[in-house]
């Protein structure tokens, strides 16, 4: 009996030691888990802040993009208008250039007497009546 009781006590002692070691390992693992969980939570908070900042930056960039598109549209309208004005001025210039090259008889449509066809007759006819 004594031998069996001693064996039981040894077994209980060994079991208690194993249970204590398991508890110690579990507590150690729980501490590490808590530490890792805190690190994860801190990293999550940092990422949340970065995401918030990036969302704000995206919003700002979207506003800038919209403003630039509006400015581009306005500049494109101004360019089209200037192109139209340039084309009109170019047509007017070409028209004026063509009309300047044409003969001068289009500008003065009066009939001038030909002084060289019969010079004596025309000179006599054109004299002042007072001189006659």
Automatic annotation (TrEMBL):
Biased composition of type Polar residues is found at 98-109
Family annotation (InterPro entries) = HEI10-like
Q: Where are the transmembrane segments?
A: none
According to its UniProt entry, the protein's GO biological process terms are: chiasma assembly
Annotated region described as Disordered, given as residue ranges: 93-132
The record's listing under PANTHER family reads: E3 UBIQUITIN-PROTEIN LIGASE CCNB1IP1 HOMOLOG (PTHR47384)
Tell me what this protein is called: E3 UBIQUITIN-PROTEIN LIGASE CCNB1IP1-like protein
In its UniProt entry, the species of origin is given as: Salix viminalis
What lineage is this protein's organism placed in?
Eukaryota, Viridiplantae, Streptophyta, Embryophyta, Tracheophyta
